[in-house]
Amino acid sequence: MNTPNTRWIIKIGPAHGIKGDAKCHVALEDPSYLLEMGPLRSADGRIFEVRALRETDKGVILAFKNVTDRTMVEALRGLELFADESALPEPENDDEFYIDDLIGMDVRLQDGTPFGTVVMIYNFGAGDILEITPVEGADVMIPFRTEFVPSIDIEAGVVTIIVPNFV
Question: For 2-127, where are the E strands, in sequence order?
C-alpha cells in the first residue's frame, strides 16, 4: 500500500480499555493532526478515521470510527495505516522530514567514506532503528539516535553515521 502518494502513519497496537481504544505508534511529531487529516487506509484497502485521540506517558491512544470494543481492536493489532501525502503537513523547517524519506538514502561514515544504503526503518517499541545494507557484508541495524546518526542531509540524500561498537 505504501505507494509513492501515501505515507505510513500509524501502527495499531493493543487495546486500551473495553470501548475500542487502541495504543498506537504514530509517525507524526504532532499526533493531534490525525483529527484533521481525514481517512486513512490499510494495505488491504480498508478505510479508518480517527474520532478521538489522547496522549499519555505510555504513548498515543486512538479511537477509530466504527471500532467500538476491545475485540475489534485486538483483531486490528499490528495493522498499519497510510495517509495520502496531500493530507499531511509539510515539514516546517529544513531539518524536518518524514522518517520514511530516509529509505534509499546513501549512508556514509563521518569522514565521507561510503558505508551503504538505508533499506528500512523499524520501531520495536524502544525507538527507531535504521537497517542499512552496507557496501560489503550483511545488513546492520543502527539505533536512530544522534550519537550514531549525527547528521542527515535530505537534499543531498546522505545519512552520516558513527558505527557503534556492537555492529
Answer: 6-15, 21-26, 40-42, 47-48, 50-56, 59-64, 80-84, 106-109, 114-123
User: Contact at 8 Å (CB) between 42 and 81?
Assistant: yes
Scanning the chain, the segments in alpha helix (DSSP H) are 70-76
Look up residue 161 and give its DSSP letter.
E
Tell me 71's DSSP state: H
Task: State the amino acid at position 133 in one-letter form.
Answer: T
Q: Cell numbers 486513512 correspond to what residue?
A: 40
- What pLDDT band is residue 1 in, cutting at 50, 70 and 90? very low
pTM: 0.68
Give the Cβ contact number of residue 142 at 10 Å. Answer: 22
How far is C-alpha 36 from the chain's CA centre? 19
> What does the alpha-carbon distance between residue 57 and residue 80 come to, in Å, rounded to a whole number?
22
Residue 167, pLDDT above cutoff 70: no
| Residues 41 and 48: beta-carbon distance below 8 Å | yes
